[in-house]
Structures are given as C-alpha cells and as structure tokens.
From TrEMBL:
Family annotation (InterPro entries): Poly_Biosynth_Transport
Transmembrane segments: 19-38, 44-67, 88-109, 121-142, 181-200, 221-243, 255-274, 294-315, 335-359, 366-384, 390-408
UniProt keyword Zinc-finger, yes or no: no
Protein name from the UniProt record: Integral membrane protein
Source superkingdom: Bacteria
Bilayer disposition of the protein: Multi-pass membrane protein
One Gene Ontology CC term in the entry: plasma membrane
Biological source species: Mycolicibacterium rhodesiae (strain NBB3) (Mycobacterium rhodesiae)
Length: 418
C-alpha cells in the first residue's frame, strides 16, 4: 500500500487494518453521540431525533452510489489499457449532483416535511439539503481515495466526519441545546471533505484524478448505484423513517425499537459501510472469481454475527437499561432477533458490493430495491411493532441477495448491465 495516490496492487491486509481502526473510532463516536442524545432527550424525544437521523442517513446513504462508482471507475483504470477520449472530474460531477439534490429537497419539502418531521420542521429541511450536498462531495472523494489505495486518507476522512459530529453533540449536551443541537450535530460532518482537502496534499492530488468517459456515462452508472444505495439506506440507516411511514405515531415504544435496531446492527454494518471502498476494490481485483470471492468475507460476517446474536440475547437488555436508562426496556428475544436481522442485511451489503464491482448495475439496484420493497410490505403485516420490525429486517434482504447471486452466477461475457 502507498499513500502517494497511485495504484500499487490488490487490497492488502494492512489497508483493511487501517480502515478497521478508523471504523472502530468512527463507531465509538457514533455510539457516544447516540448515548448523549438518548440520555438528553428521553425515549419520545429520541424517536423524533431518530427520524431525522434516519432521514439524513437515507439521503446521504444514497450518495454511497457516488462512492461506489468513483471507486470502480478509478480502480478499473489499472486493469485496462489507456483509451483515448474524453475524461471527467468525478468531484465536479459530485458537486452538480449535490446542488441539484439540495434544490429538489428544498423545493419539494412543503409536500412531505410535515409528515416526516414532528418538530423543527424547516430547520430539519435546510440541514438535510445542505448536509446532502456536502456528503455528495464526501462520498465521491472517499471513492477516489479507495480507487488509488489512499487508505490512510480514507480513514482520516471517516474519523474527521465522526469527530465533528461528536464535538457538536457534546457541546449540545453540555449547554442544553436540546433537539436542535443534535440535528446540527447530525450534519456537521458534511464539511470533513473540505478540511481534508485543505490539510492533506495526498488528498488534493487524488481529488484531481480524471476518469475515462463523459459526465453522462459516469452518471448513467452512478444512477443505478445511487438508486440501489438509496434503497439500501432505507434499510440500513433510514429505517426509522420507513417505520414511521408504516406505523404512524411511534411514541415511547418506537424510540426503544429504533435505538435497539441501531445498536444491534452497528457492530456489523458500521464496519461494512466504512469498508465499501475496500470491498469494491477487492471484488474488482477478483473479478474473474465472482462467487468464490464472496466466501471469505461472508464467513467473517456470519461468525461475528452469530457471536453478536448470543451476546445480544444474554447481555443486551441489561446493557440497554444500564447505558441509556430505565425507560429503555427490550426483551432478550427482540435484541437477539434484531441482531440476526443485521446479519442478513450485512450479507446483502456484501453481495451488493460484489455486484457493483462487476459492473452489474441493473442487478445491483434491482436487488436493493427488491429487498426494500419486500421489507416495506412485511412492515404492513398486522403484527406488533417489535415483531413487524424483526420480520421485515430479517426476511426482506433475502430477496435482494437472491437477485444479486443470480446475476453474479451468470458468465461474465453474457452480461451487459451498463
């Protein structure tokens, strides 16, 4: 591995270790932020914050489509000969996408904001729009760094984002800013990419990288990735929004369920989300062995996940009460099943990374959209909130995995998915 911004070889154990360390720091910051919000706002208030957190995670999760396409485009140049023709600047495309997205959110807000945000409605809309524009740049820069093996800078950008969020959360907790403080904290990391460009010469060099093709060819591939990432974001970080849309007033029970979902999935999904660049780079390098390349990371996910199920069932209820207060009560079975559901979403994330690395854009987006549609339908079942949540998160991703694996099992020469 090198930090010089040039490709040097396949994804290495050292790169995974560096991103793993950055992920651990990022996860710690997120856990502390959620802890402060839960202690400061109580369950009912936390459910309001949780919906905004989910909404922001949903829209910024869609920007990971830019990360994926930037990684694939930059990484693929090492496997193909130079082809004369137009070149584009991925960050310029990201800026255009961010501006358009922010305008769309602001212009359409009167039609949906009152149904999503129970308090601080217009502050939430403005923060959502501005934060999304910043994260388009953030995600694209992450993808470019992954494409050139700039793993030190990749991890630094992740940690800078999380540290800024935590700093604003801590300030809000100390001064008693209330809900508004945590809304600001949620989006504060959107400036991290700019800070990295200012302080890191390697990041500036990487940011100037050009990729083959036109803006429209990049956007065509990115559009499928963004659609898939948006659908995935509903399940991974925007689930609170989906839960509210299908359940109405969430109340205290909703606050407990949202926190339980967030905590049980974080040990698996935070690292996997952070390592999207590593995974796509790895699968691009292993493009001739698509299904075989899935085995090792899938075994790791299953092993860690099953340990998590056991830990959640044995220690989960006590840890929830001890960490967040007596109002947060959840059963052993609920926490264990939610952790099992996190395994299926983690495996869907793996198959998705392999699919987009193979440039199977349509199959990639169809898999995630199918999983989200299936989960949404399952949330409409006449069951308790807790049971519906488990069934939706456990079973919906299986549909998406089937789509991805079917596409990956087809001979490479027979697939034209651009």
């Amino acid at each position: 591995m090198t930090d010089a911004g040039t490709p040097t070889g396949p994804v290495t154990r050292a790169s995974v270790t560096r991103i793993g360390a950055a992920t651990a720091l990022t996860a710690l910051c997120v856990y502390i932020m959620l802890y402060l919000a839960a202690r400061d706002l109580e369950p009912a208030g936390f459910s309001v914050f949780g919906v905004f957190w989910g909404a922001f995670g949903l829209v910024t999760g869609a920007t990971s489509g830019l990360l994926q396409e930037a990684t694939r485009e930059v990484r693929s140049t090492r496997h193909t000969a130079f082809v004369p023709g137009p070149r584009i600047h991925p960050l310029h495309v990201a800026a255009l996408v961010g501006i358009v997205a922010a305008v769309v959110i602001t212009a359409t807000a009167p039609m949906w904001s009152s149904h999503v945000f129970a308090e601080s409605q217009w502050l939430s809309v403005v923060l959502l729009a501005v934060g999304l524009a910043g994260f388009c740049m953030h995600a694209t820069l992450l993808g470019m760094l992954a494409g050139v093996d700039g793993w030190t800078q990749y991890g630094s950008l992740m940690v800078t984002d999380a540290a800024i969020r935590l700093a604003v959360s801590a300030a809000s907790f100390v001064v008693g800013w209330g809900l508004a403080g945590y809304l600001w904290a949620t989006v504060a990391g959107a400036v991290a990419w700019l800070i990295m460009l200012i302080v890191s010469p390697v990041t500036r060099t990487t940011a100037r990288q050009l990729t083959p093709g036109t803006m429209w060819t990049f956007l065509r591939g990115a559009a499928h990735s963004i659609a898939a990432a948006g659908a995935g974001a509903i399940l991974v970080v925007g689930f609170a929004v989906l839960l509210k849309a299908t359940s109405g007033d969430l109340g205290t029970t909703g606050g407990v369920v949202i926190l339980a979902v967030t905590l049980t999935r974080a040990p698996l999904l935070v690292p996997l989300t952070a390592m999207q660049g590593n995974l796509i780079a790895y699968f691009v390098d292993q493009r001739t062995h698509r299904l075989r390349a899935l085995v090792a990371p899938a075994v790791v996910v299953l092993s860690i996940g099953m340990l998590g199920v056991l830990a959640a069932g044995v220690f989960g209820p006590w840890l929830l009460r001890a960490g967040f207060g007596a109002d947060y009560v959840a059963s052993r079975a609920l926490l264990a099943w939610l952790t099992a559901a996190a395994i299926t979403i983690a495996l869907l994330t793996l198959t998705g990374a392999a699919t987009v690395a193979a440039a199977l854009h349509r199959a990639y987006s169809l898999g995630w959209v199918s999983a989200t549609v299936a989960s949404t339908g399952l949330l409409l079942l006449p069951l308790t909130l807790e049971t519906r949540t488990v069934v939706a998160l456990l079973c919906g991703p299986l549909v998406g995995m089937a789509v991805h694996l079917a596409a990956l099992s087809r001979p490479a020469a027979s697939v034209t998915n651009h």
